[in-house]
Structure formats: C-alpha cells, structure tokens
Amino acid sequence: MSEKRKDYLSWDEYFMGVAMLAGMRSKDPNTQVGCCIVSKDNKILSMGYNGFPIGCSDDEFPWAREGGDPLETKYVYSTHSELNAILNYSGGSLAGAKLYVSLFPCNECAKAIIQAGIKEVIYDCDKYADTPSVIASKRMMDAAGVRYHQYHRTNREVKILL
Ligand SMILES: O=c1[nH]c(=O)n([C@H]2C[C@H](O)[C@@H](COP(=O)(O)O)O2)cc1CO
Ligand SMILES: [Zn+2]
Question: Which residues catalyse the reaction (predicted)?
Fold first, then answer.
C-alpha cells in the first residue's frame, strides 16, 4: 500500500509562503511585505501587500525613502501589507484570527490588528525592532493580549515554474 507524502508543506510554511508570495506583488523597490490572515481552523481569509491606495498610481506617486520634502516620499502614501489584508477582508469578523507577515507590524498596523480582534501574529523579519514604531507596536500588543512570535525558518526551497 502506498503511504502518504512526507515532504508536504507544514501549515506555517504554507501560510508564510503565501504571505511572501503576496509580497512579491509589491512595487516598493526597498522593502516588499506580504501578509496572510488565517482563521483559527487554518483557512485563509485574506491577503495583502504594501502599496499605494487604489487610484494612486504606482508610476506617479513617489517611491523615495528620503528627501527634503516628506510629500515626495512613499511613507505618507503607502498602505502597509497588514492593513491591506485587514481591509481586503469582506467576510465579516476577523476576531480570533492569526496573521502571518514577512515583517514585524508597525504601531499603526498593530492598532488595526488589535481593533480587528486578531489574536496571534507570526512574523519573519524584525529589521526595525529598535525603532519607536516597533517598540510601541509590541507594547500595545502586549497590553491587548495579542501574542506574537517569530516564524521558524525551515530553509525549504520552494520552486514554482510560472
Ligand atoms: O509593518 C510594516 N508593513 C509594511 O507593509 N511596511 C511597508 C511600508 C513601506 O512600503 C515598506 C518599508 O519601507 P522601508 O523599509 O524602505 O522603510 O514596507 C512597513 C512596515 C513597517 O514595519
Ligand atoms: Zn504597518
């Protein structure tokens, strides 16, 4: 009798992989972030990546990180992957859901995560851990009882021919 496959993706690999794939849609030249929101029973509810809002052209709005004029940087225009994933959900409540994201959520996304009732955050990179934004984010999630932990990389390489 043939046995079941052994090298299938774990739930964590699957959802973080989906988050990373969503991030590949980002036009941000410096940081591409992807997010996947999952129900308690492991069903994908929503996805998102960082980009400008609908109607704000990727070709007309600025992607610069710095410069004298803040209005000529991406920061005042880009919607973060986590907020996009929350806003993309049209199915009702996200209460009790888990959120997979390739970069630790900032303080603004933490507010949205908490208010949406999301209870667990699984993140990959935490490259802005020392910034006030991420420190504030962790403080709010700690206070609100949102658990967060880093994704354990398995270093599995996934090859998809597109
Ligand atoms: O939580 C986040 N989610 C998210 O989507 N982003 C996006 C906003 C920007 O487009 C980009 C950050 O750009 P940069 O690393 O160049 O500062 O990542 C940034 C954060 C910050 O942690
Ligand atoms: Zn954010």
Answer: 82 (proton donor)
pLDDT tens-digit series, residues 139-151: 999 999 999 999 9
Q: CA 126 to CA 149: how far, in whole Å? A: 11
pTM above 0.90, yes or no: yes
How many CB atoms lie under 10 A from the CB of residue 127?
A: 11
Token output for 119: 């209870």
106 assigned ligand-binding residue: yes
Confidence class of residue 127 from pLDDT cuts 50, 70 and 90?
very high
CA angle 158, 87, 77 (to 5 degrees): 90
Residues with CB under 6 Å of ligand 1 are 28, 30-31, 33, 50, 65, 74, 78, 80-82, 103-106, 109, 128
The answer to whether 143 and 114 have CB atoms below 8 angstroms apart is: no
**102/128 Cα distance (integer angstroms):** 12
b/e burial code for range 21-59 (CB count within 10 A of at least 16 → b): ebbeebebeebbbbbbbbeeeeeebbbbbbbbeeeeeee
